[in-house]
Specification:
By secondary structure, the chain is α/β, with parallel strands linked by helices. The chain has a single domain, classed as Purple Acid Phosphatase, chain A, domain 2. It is built from seven helices and ten strands. A five-stranded mixed beta sheet has the order 3-2-1-9-10. It has a five-stranded mixed beta sheet with strand order 4-5-6-8-7, with no helix packed on it. It starts with a strand and ends in an 8-residue tail after the last helix.
Length: about 240
C-alpha cells in the first residue's frame, strides 16, 4: 500500500507549510503531491516555492500561479512577482494543470480547480452537473475519472455521489473553514487497475498563526490586513461572518 500526502494552496505562508511538512514527516509519508497556489497572498512566496520544489514529487498549477506568471499591472501581483524573481516564475509557468493515475482500481485525478479549466470553481453547494465536469475525460487517458481531488476553495471535504468520489484537501496556508492548516492523505495500491482497499483522509494541523501574522506585518505587501484577518478568523475577506 502506498501513502501520498496531498497539499494545496500554500499562498506564501511559511509557518503553516513547515508545520504540515513536519506532520507528514512524523507520519513517515515520503511522497507529497501539491495542487497549486504556491505563492501569493502571504509574505513568503519565494520561500514556499523553493520548499515545494524541494519536497514535492508532483506540483500542479493553481489559479494564483497562473495570475503571477501571465498577468501584470496589478499591485498585489507586482509585489509578489518582485519577490519571486524570474526563475521561480518560469518554473511556475510550466506547471501542468492536472495529474491522473490508477490506485486500487480507481482512476484518480488531481487538479487545482478543474482538470480542463483553472477557473471552474466547485463548492459543496455547486449544482451536480457542474461538479461532474471535474470527472470528464481529459486528453491524457480519455476516460472519466472515478475519484477527483482538488484545492482552490480552501475548504476541506469528502463527498460521494453517482458512483464517484470527490475530495478537497483544503488549504495549507490560507484555510477558510477553520483556522488550522489542512491537507489530505490517499492510500491504496498505486498504479494498480485491480480493485483494492482505498482510503482518503483529511488532516488538520495547528500552526503558529501569530508567527505568520508577524511575517506579514514586517512587509509592505498589498492587502496585508485582509490576509491577516483571514488567518485569524478563517473567514474569506469577501464574505461576512
Amino acid at each position: 500500500m502506498e501513502r501520498i500526502a496531498v497539499i494545496s494552496d500554500i499562498h506564501g505562508n511559511l509557518p503553516a507549510l513547515e508545520a504540515v511538512l513536519e506532520d507528514i514527516k512524523n507520519r513517515r509519508i515520503e511522497r507529497i503531491f501539491c495542487l497549486g497556489d504556491l505563492a501569493g497572498k502571504g509574505p513568503s512566496s519565494a520561500e514556499t516555492v523553493d520548499i515545494i520544489r524541494q519536497h514535492c514529487e508532483v506540483v500542479i498549477k493553481g489559479n494564483w500561479d497562473y495570475y503571477l506568471t501571465e498577468q501584470t499591472g496589478h499591485e498585489i501581483l507586482t509585489w509578489h512577482q518582485s519577490i519571486l524573481g524570474v526563475e521561480r516564475l518560469n518554473y511556475m509557468k510550466e506547471l501542468p494543470i492536472y495529474k491522473e493515475f490508477y490506485i486500487s482500481g480507481k482512476l484518480l485525478r488531481l487538479c487545482h480547480a478543474s482538470p480542463n479549466d483553472l477557473f471552474h470553481r466547485v463548492y459543496l453547494s455547486t449544482e451536480q452537473c457542474k461538479r461532474m465536469k471535474l470527472f470528464e475525460a481529459t486528453s491524457t487517458l480519455n476516460l472519466e475519472a472515478d475519484v477527483v481531488g482538488y484545492g482552490d476553495i480552501h475548504g476541506a471535504h469528502v463527498d460521494n455521489f453517482d458512483g464517484k468520489t470527490i475530495f478537497n484537501v483544503g488549504s495549507v496556508g490560507n484555510p477558510l473553514d477553520i483556522t488550522e492548516a489542512s491537507y489530505g492523505i490517499i492510500e491504496g495500491n498505486l498504479d494498480d487497475k485491480n480493485k483494492g482497499p482505498f482510503t482518503i483522509s483529511l488532516v488538520r494541523v495547528p500552526y503558529d498563526i501569530e508567527l505568520a501574522v508577524s511575517h506579514a506585518e514586517l512587509t509592505n505587501m498589498p492587502e496585508k490586513q485582509e490576509y491577516i484577518n483571514e488567518l485569524k478568523t478563517g473567514i474569506f475577506r469577501g464574505r461576512k461572518a
